Amino acid sequence: MAEGGDVEWELSKENIQPLRRGRAISALHQALSQQQEGHSSATNQQRQAFECELRMYDGEDPLDVWDRYIKWTEQTFPQGGKESNLATLLERAVTRFTDEKKYHEDPRYVHLWIKFAENCPEPLDIYRFMQAQGIGVTQASFYIAWSEEYENQGNCRKADLVFQEGFKKCAEPNDKLLQFHKALQARVSRRAMMDVEEEESDNEPKEPERVSLADLKHRGKKKAIAPVNRTGPAIRSVSGGLQSRGTSILGNASNSRLMIFDETKTQSAGPSEPKLESWMAPPTSRAKENEQRPEKWSDVKIPQKSKFGHTVMAPPPPKPTFQPFVEESDQPPTMTPCKINPAVNTVLSARKPCREETPLKRLQDHHHQQREGEAGKPQEQSMYCKELLLSGAVEFSFEELRAERHFKKTAQESEVRRQRDQANASTAN
Amino acid sequence: MTSTLKGITLKGSAELVAEFFSFGINSILYQRGIYPPETFTRITHYDMSLQLTTDPKLKNYLTNVVSQLKEWLFECTVQKLVLVITCLETSEVLERWQFDIECDKSAKESSAPREKSIKTIQDEIRSVIRQITATITFLPLLETPCAFDLLVYTDKDLLVPDKWEESGPNIINQSEEVRLRSFTTSIHKVNSMVAYKRTDSV
Q1: In CATH terms, is domain B10-197 a member of 3.30.900.10?
Q2: Which superkingdom (chain B) (predicted)?
Q3: Which of A109, A171, A231, B56 pairs with A27 at a CA distance of 20 to 30 A?
Q4: Which residues 130-159 in chain B show a CB within 8 A of chain A?
Q5: What CATH code is assigned to A55-133?
Q6: Could A21 and B145 be called an inter-chain contact, meaning their C-beta atoms sit closer than 8 Å?
Q7: CB contact under 8 A, B141 and A3
Q8: Is the full-model pTM beyond 0.90?
Q9: What ipTM, to 2 d.p.?
């Protein structure tokens, strides 16, 4: 029944990210079988080859390498994730060509941007940025992706406006844009229809609801039995229970200004009652009971170094009057284990990206820097081929670049020699 | 008597296979979004929940096809059932679900039931339908509104019924093909396969 490798994809279907364009099944099989063995050298070699190509390419169309590299990455790492490096790759590719006007309307480049936006926490910002930069403004796919994002966020009006903008800019292919616009309209109208239907069904007489904690009229003469039907007339007094008890207490202490809150009463007072009050402070994020608030530790002293070099601990608590039992073999710990103070930690820790540093922010910074450079402001200039070392998703070393150039040169030389030999041989004949 | 309960006859087999196609086609139409999801209702069959259409026209069409198919299955004259998904605007074929049917024609002569319990057959059918559901992991997104068509390949000498017409195979050029699981009732064997447009041709 099970046909060999064919079940492979089914077993790990949860770990395969669906792609808009689908997946090549052969690549998928290969990727999944490699995953079980751990990433093979073949994948690494392929990646290295792409990285090399990115740096050594000197043709007309550098975007092509990036495009192929990214497509390969998508197919080779079906589960996505950090290992695939896809997010970095997309970001690098996208920033790299921001200033190259010739790519701004290239469908491949626009698709890279859209993929990049989909990987970002705030895709709408990216689309706005693209519009401001004039990237893909005549591409139908740009408007479609933007509109879909608005629609996903539930803003159908904005989604429609995006299409209008696309029509104004005469985005190509026009019929594709028209078709998606029609589909959007169909979806919106269908949703509206369904909402209307739901409202109509809401207008039907409601089933009487049971009231919690209501006094029920008992049935039965000798023995009080709760009625089966516990709504409407079966309830003894809907709002009376609380009130009657409340008044009796109030009667005893007439002077007290105690007001008893009655939920049912305030509700009946009218729908205009609930007022929209602005939050004085943002709501606490966690509604937790028994939580200790952070407070000033004014009376806590940090142990200070004495001149003898060892730390002075806080004075030990008075010795207990009894002798605590200590197991003979047990060495009492000399110090209670505590977290090492990060300020004196000698080990370098990786710098965490601060929260503000979104991909878009980085992009804008990059852009800003370039503007400044153009304006003639003094700028850092690295006296080595920094661009080449860092241009891919992985950092290269000088030696790798040199080796690459060397191999290329030797290959060329041997090719020339071979041709010359051939030429010689033919003349000898 | 007890042996007939466990075994399966040609008639029973035809019914089981036709039932599988009914549920299978419904699942594909639901999974691939050919019809809006709210026109489907959930039912439980084969110990799993399946989506069944509530659209009256579609329901009528499918009942027609399945009952005709059952007849052909009983006569062992059907070879293939193909579900073709085409783009509504350009009528380009985007996906092709092919179910090859192998009939054991000797079952027509001997009416003796075969030794295979319905439960095992249904287990096999269940795994095929599960796999159909799982194919969305690699199938491309159908971005445009699509239509579907059912093609049935029969033996050549068969007369075409009134409501049917002859058609071409609707093959996708440059396609990627994936074999799915198969199941057998020991009289009919069904091999499933899906073909879709290759990614780099987009």
Answers
A1: yes
A2: Eukaryota
A3: A109
A4: 130-131, 134, 136-141, 143-145
A5: 1.25.40.430
A6: no
A7: no
A8: no
A9: 0.73
